[in-house]
From TrEMBL:
The glycine cleavage system catalyzes the degradation of glycine. The P protein binds the alpha-amino group of glycine through its pyridoxal phosphate cofactor; CO(2) is released and the remaining methylamine moiety is then transferred to the lipoamide cofactor of the H protein. This is Glycine dehydrogenase (decarboxylating). Residues 6-440, 475-733 form the Glycine cleavage system P-protein N-terminal domain. Pfam families: GcvP2_C, GDC-P. Belongs to the GcvP family. Residues 781-902 form the Glycine dehydrogenase C-terminal domain. Keywords: Oxidoreductase, Pyridoxal phosphate.
Length: 960
């Protein structure tokens, strides 16, 4: 039987043999030595090379059917009760047309972050829809393309307020009625950067401090209370601060917008717009700002520009990837977004339109008001008169009420010893309300009550919304399922994803996301769990988490793993906060210097600053390795203050550094800790372990090495793994179902995500990947990835210099092609090559990172030899085209490279006046005639778009 690993790994045994022959690799005369093992020993330094483990905790690889059966067994141990806990997580109905055509469609979930906008127009339009939806509902001028979740969005809002406020105060005021998980996360983030949090009960009329730089208001409050925050906002402005409001988007279809109340920043989640609770995530948070704060926005921002023909075109705008440019001066360490979830939420708004959303919100508010009436009739005391979806009830037996509710199949919020919160949503039924009454009274209602929507609700009249929103035609044009299906198909066709061909992005590991791995994420037993459900309801998910933690700990050489960080950047932050906590626990509060090589990922430096550390840059040598002499000098200069070194292994230059253990030993000798960035783990898995290199803590990218799809720029998961001495400082969570993790470790650090286990809803993907690959398959995948990268490097070396190699002339899982000599000889730039690759049917490799003017190519193990050869052929032909420009065959300003990419309309509209033929433009390879991908726009003018910033849906007339 063909194993899952055989299907996951692209080159088969015959292909691998031919590739090894091309590299000149043999078994060196030994009949027992595998040539692939010879290659890996040439590439991986002998000092860190690891033989396969004899007693792995990872079970022998399962078949796809066996893995699904085991997941079904785990799912059966979960109990999906009706969640009425609220606290930012609600039941919602994902329209089937969106679930099937977006969430379950590889055209959407296997796409990469839209750094190449010409082949990302579908996703970018969906994100423009998202930004327009958020901007309209919040009443603020500009929204970004999503945040990681609501709680982290609030933290980013706090940091934005600190940057933008002219106040010199370090005080940030927090609403006492904020979500508990948000308050916990704020304390984690504020402590590291010297912000003083002051809590105020706005409901009780408590006044603001005299000095502050910002204030945070929850609207509606965690208790369900709806109150006018404008007085608090005005007082914050008088004190020189900014006002951040966390608002429920569904409520904002009925309530006045934060912008109309004077807010500077609005944040929140779009979870209840069709995205399942999924035991905490992934969900798309949001952030919107008033005019004047656009350039302070963290994360991604989609804007409108124009292409070479003057047609409107979308692209990422302003400070996108700013952390790679500004490093320790970056305003945020977030380098991605929750694109797939933002697309779902935006399409929920497109599907329902403003009238549909308002109707859903009205029914939710009516259910809550009806529940209030029935509870009052049953003798209950209601705490708040004004509310949207949450009724807070004062009772002397709160715990018993919650227990009776659980026994009846509903989950209520124990809001204190004498209070119970009940939240309704679009899925709440009349039967659910009957069970709530039974939970409070201990007996059944006299007769079942049906929900009749009368429009009655408990919203205060002064806060009722009167202005229009979602007026753009896109929110009115797709009412039938036929129209919606075609719109989603039309957008998907404008994009390039893994279902079309290879995405050879260095440092990004765009590997196969197998269908079997994806299967379980929509099962109700995983998708419909509230993140704060009782422990007994989520036993299957907790067991799966324990298993995945243990597997990840083994393959990395660490002792403990937290799956909470919901992005690689958050994993970095969590690891550095663990180091900080460790030093502080030892009384070394003065250790705050973080050494970072100049070649490191930009998020490293930004994360260090957000963890309260000072960045000192270490030089790299001409081979791309850490300069050991400079490292020792920087250690000596900062010996007493040294907190950590952050390195990426293999290096950011795609090379296994021979002296890595000398580097880590030098840091340890000086009293520092070593953070090994896990971005390049796909080159190491099964052959070496971070913990054995001298690493104390690392983050891993499950959306890279462990097969969670990139989703067009998210979701991502960045678990943090650590040695035992740092384990107590890994992220904990006040609402976690359990405190002990795999191996018996208890994490006491503050949370870095709103949910206890982060984006737990997509963990079945990585669980299935490891379970079906087994330890041997993981090792085989690493070898295949390294083989493919070396094969590409060798085949292209005569055409493009390979910038860095190891001592034996081998690269790791990626190679850097130096295009600077090409530019000098021909005038053709790295941008020209990247855009011309689109005409050949490829997504470009990573451009100008870590070295300007280069392409970093990472084929992964998933691409077969035929696809590798297709890419190699394209690159060789592009080199020949550039040489033709240098030879004068084509003018420097009119050739297939500088005019790339070529759209269909550019080939047929008007007279063809170019120096090259239409065929050379459109079909550089004859085989494309039957498989051609047509980009929807020509090359986009990013600078024009930044000078004329538009970040919401342009009018239809713009496309005329």
């Amino acid at each position: 039987m063909v194993s899952f690993a055989d299907r996951h790994i692209g080159p088969d045994a015959g292909d691998r043999g031919r590739m090894l022959d091309a590299l000149g690799v043999t078994s060196t005369g030994s009949a027992t030595q595998d040539p692939i093992d010879v290659l890996m020993r040439q590439a991986v330094p002998g000092t860190i090379f690891t033989e396969p483990a004899a007693d792995s905790v990872i079970p022998v690889a399962a078949t796809e059917a066996e893995a699904l059966a085991e997941l079904r067994a785990l799912a059966s141990r979960n109990t999906v009760n009706r969640a009425m806990i609220g606290l930012g997580y609600y039941g919602t109905i994902t329209p089937s047309v969106i679930q099937r055509n977006v969430l379950e469609n590889p055209s959407w979930y296997t796409a990469y972050t839209p750094y190449q906008p010409e082949i990302s127009q579908g996703r970018l339009e969906a994100l423009i829809n998202f930004q327009t939806m958020v901007s309209d509902l919040t009443g603020l001028s500009t929204a970004n393309a999503s945040m990681l979740d609501e709680s982290t969005a609030v933290a980013e809002g706090m940091l934005l307020a600190r940057r933008a406020s002219k106040s010199k105060s370090s005080v940030f005021v927090v609403d006492a009625d904020a979500l508990p998980q948000t308050k916990a996360l704020l304390y984690t983030r504020a402590d590291a950067v010297g912000i003083e949090l002051v809590e105020r009960d706005f409901a009780a009329g408590e006044e603001l401090p005299e000095e502050l730089f910002g204030v945070f208001v929850q609207y509606p409050g965690a208790s369900g209370r709806v109150a006018d925050p404008s007085a608090v906002i005005d007082a914050a402005h008088v004190a020189g601060g900014l006002a951040v409001v966390a608002a429920d988007l569904l409520a904002l279809t009925l309530l006045r917008s934060p912008g109309s109340l004077g807010a500077d920043v609005a944040v929140g989640t779009t979870q209840r717009f069709g995205v399942p609770m999924a035991f905490g995530g992934p969900h798309a948070g949001y952030m919107a700002v008033r005019a004047g704060l656009e350039r302070q926005l963290p994360g991604r921002l989609v804007g409108v520009s124009q292409d070479a023909s003057g047609y409107p075109a979308y692209r990422l705008a302003l400070q996108t990837r700013e952390q790679h440019i500004r490093r320790e001066k970056a305003t945020s360490n977030i380098c991605t977004a929750q694109v797939l979830l933002a697309v779902i939420a935006s399409m929920y708004a497109v599907y329902h339109g403003p009238d549909g959303l308002k109707a859903i919100a009205g029914e939710v508010a009516a259910k809550a008001a009806l529940l209030r009436d029935r509870l009052v009739a049953a003798g209950a005391e209601i705490v708040h008169d004004a509310f949207f979806d949450t009724v807070l009830v004062r009772t002397t037996d709160a715990a018993a009420v919650v227990a009776r509710g659980h026994e009846a199949g509903i989950l209520l919020h124990l809001a204190g010893p004498d209070a119970v919160g009940v939240s309704v949503d679009e899925t709440t039924t009349s039967e659910d309300l009957d069970l709530v009454i039974r939970a409070f009274t201990g007996k059944s209602a006299d007769e079942p009550k049906s929900i009749v929507f009368t429009g009655a609700n408990a919203l205060p009249g002064a806060l009722r919304r009167t202005d229009d929103y979602l007026t753009h035609p896109v929110f009115h044009a797709h009412r039938s399922e036929t129209a919606m299906m075609r719109y989603l198909k039309q957008l998907a066709d404008r994009d390039y994803a893994l279902d079309r061909g290879m995405i050879p992005l260095g440092s990004c590991t765009m590997k196969l996301n197998a269908a079997t791995e994806m299967a379980a994420i929509t099962w109700p037993e995983f998708a419909q769990l509230h993140p704060f459900a009782p422990r007994e309801d989520v036993q299957g998910s907790l067991e799966m988490i324990d298993q995945l933690e243990a597997w990840l700990a083994e393959v990395t050489g660490y002792d403990a793993v937290s799956l909470q960080p919901n992005a690689g950047s958050q994993g970095e932050l969590a690891g550095l906060l663990a180091i900080r906590g460790y030093h502080h626990a030892n009384g070394d509060v003065h250790r705050d210097v973080c050494l970072i090589p100049s070649s490191a990922h930009g998020t490293n430096a930004a994360s260090a600053v957000l963890a309260g550390m000072k960045v000192v840059v270490v030089a790299t040598d001409e081979l791309g390795n850490v300069d050991l002499d400079d490292l020792r000098a920087k250690i000596a200069a900062n010996a007493d203050a040294l907190a950590a070194l952050m390195i990426t292994y293999p290096s950011t230059h795609g090379v296994y550094e021979e002296q890595v253990t000398d580097i880590t030993a030098a840091v340890h000798e000086a009293g520092g800790q070593v953070y090994v960035d896990g971005a390049n783990l796909n080159a190491l898995l099964g052959y070496a372990r971070f913990g054995d290199l001298g690493g104390d803590v690392s983050h891993l990218n499950l959306h890279k090495t462990f097969a969670i799809p990139h989703g067009g720029g998210g979701p991502g998961i960045g678990p943090v793994a650590a040695k035992a001495h740092l384990a107590p400082h890994l992220p904990g969570h006040p609402q976690a179902q359990k405190t002990e993790h795999a191996g018996g470790y208890v994490f006491d650090g503050g949370p870095v995500s709103g949910a206890p286990y982060g984006s737990a809803g997509v963990l079945p993907i990585s669980w299935a990947y490891v379970r079906m690959m087994g330890a041997a398959g993981l090792r085989e995948a690493t070898a295949a990835a390294v083989l493919s990268a070396n094969y590409i490097a060798a085949r292209l070396a005569d055409h493009y210099p390979v910038l860095y190699t190891g001592e034996n002339g081998r690269v790791a899982h990626e190679c850097i092609l130096d295009l600077r000599p090409l530019k000098e000889a021909t005038g053709i730039t790295v941008d020209d090559v990247a855009k011309r690759l689109i005409d050949y049917g490829f997504h470009a490799p990573t451009m100008s990172f870590p070295v300007a003017g280069t392409l970093m190519v990472e084929p992964t193990e998933s691409e077969d030899l035929g696809e590798l050869e297709r890419f190699i052929e394209a690159m060789i032909m592009i080199k020949a085209e550039a040489d033709a420009v240098a030879a004068g065959t084509w003018p420097a300003d009119d050739n297939p490279l500088v005019n790339a990419p070529h759209t269909a309309v550019s080939l047929i509209a008007g007279e063809w006046a170019h120096a090259y033929t239409r065929e050379q433009a459109a079909y550089p390879v004859h085989a494309q005639i039957t498989t051609k991908y047509w980009p929807p726009v020509r090359r986009i003018d990013n600078a024009w778009g930044d000078r004329n910033l538009v970040c919401a849906c342009p009018p239809i007339e713009a496309f005329a």
